[in-house]
Amino acid sequence: MTNPLFILVGIVIFLVYGGLNFYIGLRGWQALFSYVPFLSSKVYWPVFLLLAFSYLLSRFSEKFLPTMLYEGMTIVGAYWIAFMFYFLLIITLIDLLRLFDRWLHLVPLEIKQSSNPALGLTVFVLVVGIVSYGVWNASHPRINHYDLSIAKQAGSLEQLHVVMVSDIHLGTIVHNDQLTKLVNQVNGLKPDLILFAGDVFDEDIESKNKQQISDTFRMLRASYGAFAVLGNHEYIGGNADEAIKYLGEAGVKVLRDTSQEIAGSFYLIGRDDLSGARFNGTKRQDLATIMQGVNPSFPILLMDHQPSHLEEPVEQGVDLQVSGHTHNGQMFPIQFITQRIFEQDWGLLRKGDFQLIVSSGYGTWGPPIRIGNNPEIVDITITFNP
């Protein structure tokens, strides 16, 4: 039986989303498209609404549409979300200027007029430019390097070279081509250890060519292997168990509230994602329980998709935690929100002997764009100085 609260929330989201898009569409018609020859409102509005709702329509009709049509609508809708976001920001700013100018009397007459094709065209070109840059930026990942020190003996190891990647979001939008590029870049760094800090897959991994992706993962080369943890998106799609099985078959071991001693030199711990309890009803184990039997004199590395509840790894003596999830906001100015939610939403944080690295992620969720941040591969050199 469907939860009435879920239906109510869905209706509210639909109405808000529809209202915002109507606002954008109305301003677009008034300022620009009503001046386009041979374009009538009877053509404009159906096309605009189909574009605006293509992402939602694809999500609700996935089981009924041909794969090509479903994926096409998803991609078009994902791009529209980016356009919608920046159209909304700029149009709202202009309307607020008009409102406050009733008292300020500083805004030029051209901006005051809602029917102004020059202003409308300027806004349109500006947003197209922003989104185009975001698409280019999202497809050009950077390698960010960190030199860290851990004050412990690690067997005979003096250094450990770790490459960490988070938030690939393989699915309808991020394909095997991007994964192949990632694997080649990772292998080029010649790591000792490869870590995937969650959200390897997006909600749906059924529609992808699994054999292709599996073969690509098998190309990874590292002395101590490749490991992963689950993120929230593996749970959102209900594919957590399948993701574990699939990654395992592809040579990537998923750690789910477990620890593993590696080469008699250090421990690697992988935590289940916080969102798991919401989707499977099972709360993840606390870190103290997971670390029973872990020798604290050895270096302890931890993977946890979300950089939350940092008091736990601090209390339990974790030396280095790697996380993702935040995307560093992905689209400016969302990072101002992630900075308020998380103690550290990107980069390096030190708290005594505890160190945390949060990645902005390699892929994207929703709109395949990045503004105000960069996709990245995290390259870590750890020196052990007992």
Automatic annotation (TrEMBL):
GO molecular function: hydrolase activity
Record-annotated membrane-spanning stretches: 6-26, 38-57, 77-97, 118-136
Residue ranges of domain Calcineurin-like phosphoesterase in the record: 161-328
Alphabetical list of SUPFAM superfamilies matching this protein: Metallo-dependent phosphatases
Domain of life: Bacteria
Protein source organism: Desulfosporosinus lacus DSM 15449
Keyword NADP recorded: no
InterPro entries for this protein: Calcineurin-like_PHP (IPR004843), Metallo-depent_PP-like (IPR029052), Metallophosphoesterase_sf (IPR051158)
Descriptive protein name: Calcineurin-like phosphoesterase domain-containing protein
Keyword ATP-binding tagged: no
Keywords (A to Z) from UniProt: Membrane, Transmembrane, Transmembrane helix
